Amino acid sequence: MLQAETEKKVLLEVQGLKKYFPVKGLGMFGGTQQYVKAVDDVSFTLYEGETFGLVGESGCGKSTTGRTIMRLTEPTEGKAVYRNVDIFGQSGKQLRKTREEIQMVFQDPYSSLNPRKRIGSTLQEPLIVHKLGQRKDHTERVMDIMQKVGLQLDHFYRFPHEFSGGQRQRIGLARALIANPKLIICDEPVSALDVSIQSQIVNLLQRMQKEFNLTYLFIAHDISVVRHISDRIGVMYLGKMVETAPTDNLIGKPLHPYTQALLSAVPMPNPRIKRERITLKGEIPSPLNPPSGCVFHTRCPFVMDKCKTVQPLNKEVGQDHFVACHLYD
């Protein structure tokens, strides 16, 4: 878990990140007329050794945020400063070195694996690409990582279709770990798995974090899973970060109406304990044409006239607790 407050060291700082996807116009001469604003001015900081959870409804831009930081898709605007160097300004050998230190675990454990390659070859590939160690030592390194993530040695010779979903996600984690990274971006790594397997993978992630001194950006739509693994949580809605806080603060005292609604939807373990459910009215607006002012105002139960025209600033309202809402002006 996160180091003591006095020892916190910034590993990654995302500043004003934007990712707009162009939409082609209709007609014979239709050009680019509009943009889908998947990520719109998102900023947050990641500290060494912590897990930062990024949560929100499907389509809010959280996965695009992770993929853009990895340069799997190019940013429209903003910075991602990793160890005092902007990733978006890197290319060639510099970018390859950064990608060695920043790895990713993908949502779908099957489509992220090459079905025509044996698992041993898949896990050796990062070592070859980044020229890590001697070729004669690669097999031993792969076997060691496989054992650490709970795979058997004979799995080295099998193909992806011979594994269960949980085993494939262990392979995905092994592939991320084998380059000895500092930061792993986990893009909904448990959402495609059964509930019982989800807990195993989350516990495995926590064990690997301690053993390898890792930092995680953990992306998920299930706030109960994010709560279990994260030191701090950022809540996204329609491409924007609406609230960021340490986990206990966010869960114990959510401030943004959207965060309150998300938490009210989490089932209680004890059926005798009743929780007031906050039901949001209306549909999520399209990122192709987001609302003016606060993007949440079309569904907010506390909407004011100001919310419809003025975009709220991200304000610190408590110790490391930030919220973008006019209720706290």
The CATH homologous superfamily corresponds to: P-loop containing nucleotide triphosphate hydrolases
3D shape: globular
One letter per element, helices H and strands E, the order comes to: EEEHEEHEHHHEHEHEEHHEE
Taking the alpha carbons of the first and last residues, their distance comes to 33 Å
Q: What is the mean pLDDT?
A: 90
Radius of gyration: 21 Å
Helix count equals 9
Tell me the strand order in the biggest sheet: 6-7-8-3-9-10-12-11
CATH class designation: Alpha Beta
| DSSP helix fraction | 25-40%
- The parts where pLDDT drops under 50 for at least 5 residues are 1-6
Q: Per CATH, which architecture? A: 3-Layer(aba) Sandwich
Strand proportion, as a percent range, falls in: 15-25%
Number of domains: 1
How does the major sheet shape up?
A: 8 strands, mixed
* Total beta strand runs: 12
CATH topology: Rossmann fold
Q: Structural class, from helix and strand content?
A: alpha/beta
Explain what this protein looks like in three dimensions.
The protein is α/β, with parallel strands linked by helices and 329 residues long. The protein has a single domain (5-328), classed as P-loop containing nucleotide triphosphate hydrolases (Rossmann fold). The chain has nine helices and twelve strands. It has helices at residues 62-69, 92-101, 119-129, 135-148, 165-177, 195-212, 223-229, 247-252, 257-264, and strands at residues 10-24, 32-47, 51-55, 77-82, 85-86, 102-105, 183-187, 215-220, 232-237, 240-246, 315-318, 321-323. A hairpin with a 7-residue loop joins β1 (10-24) and β2. The longest helix has 18 residues, at 195-212. Residues 1-6 have low confidence and may be disordered.
